[in-house]
Structures are given as C-alpha cells and as structure tokens.
Amino acid sequence: MLDKQSPIPIYIQIEEQLKQQIQQGDFPIGTAIPSERELTERFSVSRMTVRQSITNLVNDGLLYREKGRGTFVASPKVEQPLNGLTSFTEDMLARGMTPSNKVIVFEVRDPDADIAADLQLADGDKVYFIERIRFADEKTMAIERTYLPVERFPGLHRDLLHGSLYAMIEEDQQLKISHATQRMEAGLLKKEDAELLQIQSPAAILMIERISYLDGDLPFEVVRSTYRADRYKFITDIQR
Ligand code: 16G
Q1: Whose CA is nearest to atom 10 of ligand 1?
Q2: The whole model's pTM is what?
Q3: Cα separation, 231 vs 217, whole angstroms
Q4: Residue 159 reports pLDDT greater than 90
Q5: Which of 132, 162, 166, 214 for a ligand 1 pocket mutation test, highest count of atoms within 8 Å of Cβ?
Q6: At CA 123, angle to CA 121 and CA 127, rounded to 5?
Q7: Most buried of the four, 77, 82, 151, 200, by CB within 10 Å?
Q8: What is the ipTM of this complex?
Q9: Residue ranges of the domains in the chain?
C-alpha cells in the first residue's frame, strides 16, 4: 500500500490514504479512526510516522483528538462566502443547520476610543457590550463580541438576543442594514476563549472585525468575532 521507493515521504502517503478513506466515507463523521497502534501495524511503520500523519490531518481540520478517547472524523467545514452581508442565523439556516446562541455578557459600558470612533459616538455616549457564543447544530462555531450604540437601540435587553440580532434590527426596529467593512486575520485561541468554545488550545482561529452600517451610512455595530478555524472555510468570488 505504501511506496517506500517514492520521493513522497511515508507520513504523507499515509496521510493521503487516510484522507481518501475519510472522503469515501470508510470512516463516517464522528467515528474514531483506528488507533495509532493499529495503524502502525497496518502500515508497518513507526508510531512517530503515524503520529505525524494524524497530526497533519488534525491541523487540516479533517480529524480531531479527544483527550483519553481517541481521534475522530470531523464534520466538513462550513463554507462561508465573504461577499454577502448576512447574519449568522441566516448563514446556518441556509445550510440546513440549526443556529443557537448563548449570551454570556450583556451590559452597558463606556466605549474604548476605537469603538467610539468606529461607531461615530459623541463624548459620553454609551454602548451595549454583548458577548455571545454561536452554535450550529449544538456545536460551538464562534464567539462574537458586539458593540451597539445605546442611543440607536434604546430599551434593548438581554432576552432579545437569544435569537437573531439582525432580525431584531430589521423586523422589530424596522431599520435597514446596508453595508459593512470587514477585516480578517489569523490568530491563536486564547485560554479563556478555549473554555467558551469548549475546545483545547492551542488552536487556530480567524478573527473578523465587522463594522456595519444602516442606510444613510450610520454605523450601528462593531463586532469582533473569533471563528473556529477547524469549522470554517471562507470563500470569495473574484473577477478580472
Ligand atoms: C454575523 C456577523 C456579525 C453579526 C451577526 C448577526 C460576521 C463576521 N459577523 O455573525 O457582525 O452581528 O452575524 O447575526 O459575519 P444574528 O442576526 O444571527 O444575531
């Protein structure tokens, strides 16, 4: 099964074979792959070699490890287009997944200078700070930290945020969301966020900051999101 004469390193050949088996459905989503010991015997290679192949597949998000339990086949990543201004709820529903949220923090605060500038606030204006964990089919996907101007949404309370923020703005408040600017960068999961997302650190994340505007160029939210890199793939259509 392995070609020991090939210039392709053995651990990569094993990785490719396991990948193929995952893609063919030989190991269905959520099931354990054979143990390191079994794979070592099957391929007649060292445990180090097998471990390297598995680590690569874990890093690519095809497998995940659970301490003391084994290595399992991960669900395929969510493919998230970056060119539409959609909400988390809309995105998950469009994929046939069930979105849910957990509001961790809801409070009124004095904004930092950068948030105040992005939201074009006047001196003394306050913001709601909302920290939510976002789930799809009960699995953690992202943490969103949202800042909204209190003045634009008087009377907002925690219970309204168990559903969609955008639906609340557009349907309840009858406001028109028009456009947004996003910045994205790679990062490593912080310890406190690992607990919220119920995953082990170190893990790769994608940090997205979105400033969104209502009709008339009025900024209404700054959102700093931490997306699980093992659950997301971002896509854009580009033209020339
Ligand atoms: C998305 C947006 C976020 C927005 C949220 C509303 C990104 C990076 N972020 O997650 O800015 O606040 O959707 O979702 O796409 P909701 O209407 O489901 O609460």
Answers
A1: 88
A2: 0.87
A3: 32
A4: no
A5: 166
A6: 50
A7: 77
A8: 0.97
A9: 10-73, 78-235
The residue-averaged pLDDT of 127-139 equals 97
Does ligand 1 lie within 6 Å of residue 164's CB atom? yes
Main-chain dihedrals φ then ψ at residue 91, nearest 5 degrees = -60, -45
Please compute, for residue 216, the number of CA atoms within 13 A of its CA located in the half-sphere on the CB side: 4
Class of the CATH-defined domain 10-73:
mainly alpha
The total of other beta-carbon atoms located within 10 Å of residue 98's CB is 12
* CATH superfamily placement of domain 78-235: Chorismate lyase-like (3.40.1410.10)
Q: Are strands 218-228 and 204-214 parallel, antiparallel or unpaired?
A: antiparallel
- The helix/strand count (H/E) of the chain reads as 7, 10
CA distance 44 to 36: 11
CA angle, corner 112, sides to 108 and 115, nearest 5?
90
Atom of ligand 1 nearest to the CA of 163: 19
84 CA → ligand 1 middle, Å: 11
Q: Whose CA is nearest to atom 4 of ligand 1?
A: 87
